[in-house]
Amino acid sequence: MSSLSDQVIVFTGAGAGIGRSVVSRYINEGARVVAVDISSAVESLRDEFGDKVIPLVADVSTWEGNLAAANAATEAWGKIDVFVGNAGITDAARPLEDIPGDRLGAAFGELFGVNVLAPMLGVRACLDELIKSQGNVILTGSYASSNAGGGGALYTASKHAVLGLVKQLAYELAPDVRVNGVAPGVAPTRLKGTGSLGQAAADSVLDGTREALPLQEVSGVDAYNEVFTLLASRVGTAAMTGTMVSVDSGLSIRGIGKPGGRVRRDGDN
Ligand SMILES: NC(=O)c1ccc[n+]([C@@H]2O[C@H](COP(=O)([O-])OP(=O)(O)OC[C@H]3O[C@@H](n4cnc5c(N)ncnc54)[C@H](O)[C@@H]3O)[C@@H](O)[C@H]2O)c1
C-alpha cells in the first residue's frame, strides 16, 4: 500500500514550482488532490493524472476561492484528509526604505493576503472535514520564517506569521488535527512578485546563491517531496504537530568565515 492511499488532499499553489512537484508525488503515493492555483497552468495536471486530480483556478486570498476548493473535494470524494497551504508570493527582498509609504498598505494587504490570510482561509474552509477525518494541515513556511535576510520586511514578516499560525493552529486543533510546516531555503522557481509594488515574477536563485549554501548545492524543486509526503501520512508522523521542518541546505547553520566548515575556498590547501 502506498503511503497516501485513499487520502483526499486540498493543495494550494499547485500550478508550478514546489507545489506542482509535491502534488505529483502525492498522486503517485495514492492520494486524490484538488489542485488550486490562480494560474490556469494548473489545468495541465488533468492531462497527466486524469480523474485523480481536480484542477481549480481560484484566488486563495479570497474566502470564495477556498470554499470552492473544499466543496470540490467533498462533492467529488466525500471527505478531506489534508489541507496544504503552499501558495505564496514574494517582495523580491525589497527593503522597507525602498517602499514608498503611500504604497506600503496596499503591498502589505496583497502579500499578507496570499502568504498569511490564504492559509487561514484554507484551513477554515476545510476545518469541519479535517476534524471529521482526524486529518492534518501542512503550511509552506520558509527560511524567512525564522531568520532575517531571506526576503524583505514584508515577506519575512509574513513567513514568521506562517510559523505562528502553525503553532497556534496545532494548539487549537489538538488532538483532532495535526498542523505542521515545511521551511524551504532556496528552490529554483520563479515566485510571483507583489503587483502593487510593480514587481514581476523573478528567479529565486541568484548569482552566488549556490556558493552561499553550506551544502553547496541548489536542490531541485523535488527536494521537498519526501518531507511533505511524510507530514501528510497518517503513519510516519502521527506524533508530530506544531513543527516547522527546515529543508534549507544548511542556510540556518551558515558560518561567518565560510558557509560550511569543510567548504573549500580558492587558496585553501
Ligand atoms: N522558491 C524558493 O526559494 C522558496 C523559498 C522558501 C519558501 N518558498 C515558498 O514555497 C512556496 C511555493 O513557492 P515556489 O517557490 O514553488 O513558487 P511558484 O511561484 O513556482 O509557486 C507558487 C504558486 O502559488 C500560486 N499563487 C500565487 N498567488 C496565488 C493566489 N492568490 N491564489 C492561488 N494561487 C496563487 C502561483 O501561481 C504559483 O503557481 C511559497 O509559499 C514560497 O513562499 C519558496
TrEMBL record:
Query: Does the record bear Oxidoreductase in its keywords?
Result: yes
Q: Name one GO molecular function term.
A: oxidoreductase activity, acting on NAD(P)H, oxygen as acceptor
Family in the record: Belongs to the short-chain dehydrogenases/reductases (SDR) family.
Q: What is the lineage of its organism?
A: Bacteria, Bacillati, Actinomycetota, Actinomycetes, Mycobacteriales
Q: Can you say what this protein is called?
A: Benzene glycol dehydrogenase
SUPFAM superfamilies, from UniProt?
A: NAD(P)-binding Rossmann-fold domains
- Name the Pfam families on file: adh_short
Alphabetical keyword list? Oxidoreductase
